[in-house]
Amino acid sequence: MPSPSDPFRDALAYKPSLRTPVWLMRQAGRYLPEYRAIRAQAGDFLTLLKTPKLAVEVTLQPIRRFDLDAAILFSDILTIPDAMGLELCFEPGEGPYFKHPIKNPRNIEQLAACAPVEHLEYVWSTIHGVKSEIMGHKPLIGFSASPWTLACYMIGEGPRRDFEDALCWLYQYPTELSQLLSILAQHIGDYLIHQIDSGVDVAMLFDSWGGILPSTHYGACAIEPVRQVLNRVQAVHPDIPTILFARGIGSRMEMVRNLPIRCLALDSTVDLSLTRQLLGNSLALQGNLDPHVLYGTHEEISKQVHTLIQSMDDLTGFIFNLGHGIRPDVDFKNVGFLIDCVHQETRS
Ligand code: CP3
Predict the structure, then answer these.
(1) What is the value of pTM for the model shown?
(2) Residue 153 catalytic?
(3) Residue with CA nearest ligand 1 atom 36
(4) What are the pLDDT digits (tens) for 137-163?
């Protein structure tokens, strides 16, 4: 049961809380000197996330340093395709890509037969490790990407940022694409179920690339596969709070209305108070300060926090976050300042 000392869980349950909860996307990462030290010890990012002892440490770093209301599992959205045999790679300056991407729609059937959860033992170990360190003092967020977002990275050749190949499949191989999204929905559902079984308190889905879909396909390719994931999870864990990060949702806000989520996380391009007016007072909202604000002066940061919070008529069911992840070259002192501003601004 949520208690008054759990502002994050209160907000997810749309209950008034003693303070507005705050956590930040990519709160663990290269902007923190202690992260860079552990990353250097691990040698590379993949070794870091596949070594539970180190991944536990990195998960805990931001909640030790800052007054945050939740921890997020240190992992990556691309671990599932990696565990499906696509082999995840990170080249400096290139962004993530797969050594064996899906180039041919004929390759899809074999993906249905694989069981990625059998290769993700390191994730369950990290969750157990984090839970035994935080002893219930802070909620732990587990996560996965949405089916469409994973498909964007899986389809096509080499490192890409535009995901043109996945977009071509909408028309070139519509049946196979929809088959791929269903297969991914099953694997993602099972992955989240295992994370919850291992101890995460909240499950979040990152639909980071739904925004590139034409509006004709947003429902079928972004929303419906997310619904399949959530239905699968909730058949096993009906009470687990769920958050959907619908980056780029823009004018398609109405489409989340009947999704079984507790909270909608938004990027910085949308207006939170208008979203609340549209979606009503039962769905919690999370977001959505522009992460570039962290490059401003303290005066500017505090002004922007004030403006965002003032725009919300009622802070019940509101979780303060950024609209996207913290960038690696941000000054960590500004992150601490931002978090303190949120607490000061919402204390009453
Ligand atoms: O938020 C957290 O602190 C939890 C950990 C987390 C990471 N990635 C760690 C990470 C989470 C939740 C993610 C999600 C993720 N990963 C998303 C969805 C969110 C979003 O950004 O829309 C996406 C698209 C990815 C894919 C990914 N992984 C990218 C684009 C990158 C950056 C590559 C680069 O060169 O900077 C990563 C790597 C990554 N994931 C890092 C971290 C801390 C940087 C790794 C490093 O170099 O140390």
Answers:
(1) 0.96
(2) yes
(3) 95
(4) 999 999 999 999 999 999 997 666 789
